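To whoever picks this up:

The nightly regression suite flagged Cyclic nucleotide-binding domain-containing protein as changed. Nothing in the input moved, so I suspect the structure step. Input below, exactly as stored in the fixture:
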Amino acid sequence: MEAISLFVQPKPLLSETIERIVADGTLKARALVLSPGDYLFREGDDMRETFYLTRGLVRLYSGTPDGYAKTVFFHKAGTLIGFQGFRPEVDRKPSILNAKATTKVEAFAIDAERFGSYLKTHGDVCYAMAQYLFEMMSLQTREAVNASVYPVLQRFSALLLTLAREFNSAQAPAIIPFSNEELAEMLGVHVNSITNSVVALRNADCAERQRGALVITDFKKLKSIAENLIVEN
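Regenerated output under the current build:
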């Protein structure tokens, strides 16, 4: 089983088409700019739009009243987020998750009904959309299986390796710019489990905390701990 990558990847055909039809006016959209910490939408919001990101990073996550959170995905430039508009209910289409900007974000808000109509009449784009949604679903299926089978230390090691790959940090020392709390939310575990894992990785001489960031100091040792959760590209 491969480790989860929380970063949703763009589908070139889908991205290129949306940018083109928004630019030529085929699909009406309004431009949005978010500062770090701004919400694109919140749990419970009545959602009638789908958002296409042109810049920045958005964290999609669930939250509870007592402050617990689980990161579901990170969406980056070239990806779509927010599909409640495709729900069959007419009166209300509530979001079940929160979407929050982690960096400055620029996006287009697209009317979901009009977007759906476009997909119905353009089979190649509709198929690319189906592939995009399937890949998101498969990522979540993989994570659900991993969470029930593999120990936290192994999952955490694999997560660090996938984050390093996403940030193009293939050589040590590689900086992972997230706190223990943020990393815990990515795996859906208590922060103490991450703290204990960091200690274990430090003792294994493959990672350590430096000035608030986690630093991978030995990729080979870290991969040996992640074991079969890492699939080489």
